[in-house]
Specification:
about 425 residues, alpha/beta, Rossmann fold, 2 domains, six-stranded mixed beta sheet, five-stranded parallel beta sheet, about 15% strand, binds pyridoxal-5'-phosphate, binds zinc ion
C-alpha cells in the first residue's frame, strides 16, 4: 500500500524515513516538508480539523472540535472597502461555529502534534511558550490525556488555563522571559524520553496551521489572491504557502500562489526590516536593535520571536520570495484602533496579534497593494477571550515546579525524570 505521506528535506530533497525527525540525515537546517499521496483533498465527515486529515501527518483522530472557520462580515467589508474579504477565524465565536476555547490558532498545531504522540507511547513532548502555545497544548492534553511538559516564564502564568480539568501536565515556570523558557526546556531534553516539540521544524505544527488556508479554500472554492497575517515566527505563513502549493498542484483552485502579506508590531519588526532590504539574513544590529527594550514596548507580545525561521530553506524569506510578499510594520496605536474596529464590526474581541493583522490589511488597502475587489484571506489568529469567560470556568493549570532561574538543577531533573516514568 502506498504510504499516506512522505517527509522530504527542502534543502537536498532527501526522503526522510523517520517521520518524526526534525531534519534530514545531513542535519540540514532547511525545513522538512510533508508530501501527501493524495494530490487533491477530500473533506471528511470528522471532528474539527480531522475533516482535512488527507493533508495532516496523522493516523486516526482525537475527539476535539478545534478548527478554524471562514466567513464574511458585511460591516468589516464596508469599513475596509473590500468586497471580497473573508475572515478565517481561530478562536471562540460560537455564532460563527468557532469553538476553540483557548482562543488562538495554536490549538490547530497542538491537535495533530499530540495526536502523533499517541503512537509514541514511551516519549513525552516538552514545549516552551510565552502563553498561547502552552495554553493550547494544555487544553488538548486535558481533553486527549496525552501528557506534556510545559515551560513558561513566570509572568505568563495568568495565560495558562484550560476549560477542562487537566491531569497529565508537568508545568514548570522560570524566572525570565520567553528566551529563558526556551533555554530551560533545551536543558530538560537531557532527561530520557523527553523530546522537543520542534516549533517551525515540526511538520505536524505547520500542517495543522495550514488548515486555515484549507478551510478558506474549501469554503470559497478557490485560493485567495492575498493572505494576511501578523507573525512572530512566521510558521503560520510558511504553512499557508505550503498548503497553497498543494492546491496549485491539485489544479482546480487557481493558478497563482496567494501573495503573503506579513505584519509585525513596531518597534519590534526584524523580519519586516530584513525583507524590505531584500535580505535573506537577519542582522540583529540592523533588524532588531535594542531587542529587549523593543519587545517590552509592543502591544501584541506573541509577535516577538528573536530567532524566527526566516533565513533557512523553506522558511519565511522563501515564502515571501515565492509569493511576491509584502511586509508591514504596525504601531501599537494602529493595532489598538484596528482592534476596536474589529470588535465594533463583529462583536467579539480579537487577540492583539489579530488586531495587528487587520491594521496591516488597512495599510495594504491604503497603499493600493490590495484592490477593492481582490479576494483576501485575513487570518484572524485569535479572539473571543471575553466570550469564553462568560461561557466557561477557566481552570488555572497547576504549577509543578517553580524555578528561580532558567537552570534546572540535578534534583529538578531527577524529579522530572520521576514524573516521566510515572506518567508516560
Ligand atoms: C503565535 C501567534 C501568532 C504568530 O504566529 P506565527 O505564524 O507563529 O508567527 C499570531 N497570532 C496569535 C494569536 C498567536 O498566538
Ligand atoms: Zn537535507
Amino acid at each position: 500500500m502506498k504510504e499516506k505521506y512522505s517527509v522530504v528535506c527542502s534543502e537536498c530533497g532527501e526522503i526522510v524515513h523517520d517521520k518524526y525527525a526534525q531534519s534530514c540525515s545531513h542535519n540540514h537546517s532547511g525545513l522538512l516538508k510533508t508530501e501527501y499521496s493524495k494530490k487533491d483533498l477530500v473533506v471528511h465527515n470528522s471532528f474539527g480539523i480531522f475533516r482535512f486529515s488527507d493533508w495532516l501527518p496523522v493516523e486516526g483522530e482525537i475527539l476535539v472540535e478545534s478548527r478554524p472557520v471562514t466567513f464574511h462580515n458585511a460591516d468589516l467589508s464596508k469599513e475596509t472597502g473590500l468586497s471580497n474579504l473573508s475572515l478565517t477565524f481561530s478562536g471562540y465565536f460560537p455564532e460563527e461555529g468557532a469553538r476553540m476555547q483557548t482562543c488562538s490558532f495554536k490549538e490547530l498545531e497542538a491537535v495533530p502534534t499530540l495526536q502523533r504522540m499517541i503512537n509514541r507511547k514511551k516519549e513525552v513532548l516538552i514545549i516552551a511558550s510565552a502563553g498561547n502555545t502552552a495554553r493550547a497544548f494544555a487544553q488538548v492534553s486535558a481533553i486527549s490525556k496525552v501528557p506534556v511538559i510545559l515551560v513558561v516564564p513566570e509572568n505568563s502564568l495568568s495565560r495558562l488555563w484550560t476549560t477542562v480539568e487537566s491531569e497529565n501536565i508537568l508545568l514548570i515556570t522560570v524566572k525570565g522571559d520567553y528566551s529563558d523558557a526556551i533555554e530551560c526546556s533545551r536543558k530538560i531534553t537531557s532527561v530520557e524520553c523527553v523530546i522537543p516539540e520542534g516549533g517551525a521544524r515540526n511538520i505536524a505544527r505547520r500542517d495543522g496551521m495550514a488548515t486555515v488556508l484549507i478551510d478558506y479554500v474549501m469554503t470559497k472554492g478557490h485560493l485567495p489572491l492575498h493572505y494576511v497575517q501578523a507573525i512572530g515566527s512566521g510558521t503560520g505563513a510558511i504553512a499557508a504557502n505550503e498548503a497553497a502549493k498543494r492546491f496549485l498542484k491539485a489544479g482546480r483552485y487557481g493558478s497563482e500562489l496567494p501573495h503573503t502579506h506579513l505584519a509585525q508590531n513596531a518597534p519590534f519588526t526584524p523580519m519586516v526590516s530584513a525583507w524590505r532590504e531584500g535580505r535573506r539574513d537577519l542582522i540583529p544590529d540592523i533588524d532588531m536593535p535594542d531587542a529587549r527594550e523593543s519587545i517590552a514596548k509592543v502591544y501584541a507580545d506573541v509577535l516577538t520571536n528573536r530567532n524566527p525561521p526566516y533565513s533557512i530553506r523553506g522558511g519565511v524569506f522563501d515564502t515571501m520570495t515565492d509569493s511576491n510578499g509584502l511586509a508591514y510594520a504596525v504601531t501599537n496605536e494602529e493595532a489598538r484602533s484596528a482592534g476596536k474596529l474589529f470588535t465594533d464590526c463583529l462583536g467579539v474581541d480579537p487577540d492583539p496579534a489579530a488586531a495587528v493583522s487587520l491594521a496591516a490589511l488597512l495599510q495594504a488597502v491604503d497603499s493600493h497593494s490590495i484592490k477593492p475587489s481582490d479576494s483576501v484571506l485575513l487570518n484572524v489568529t485569535g479572539g473571543g477571550y471575553s466570550r469564553v469567560k462568560e461561557d466557561f470556568t477557566l481552570i488555572p493549570v497547576p504549577v509543578t515546579i517553580k524555578l528561580p532561574s532558567n537552570e534546572p538543577g540535578i534534583e529538578v531533573l531527577k524529579d522530572i525524570s520521576g514524573w516521566v516514568k510515572e506518567n508516560v
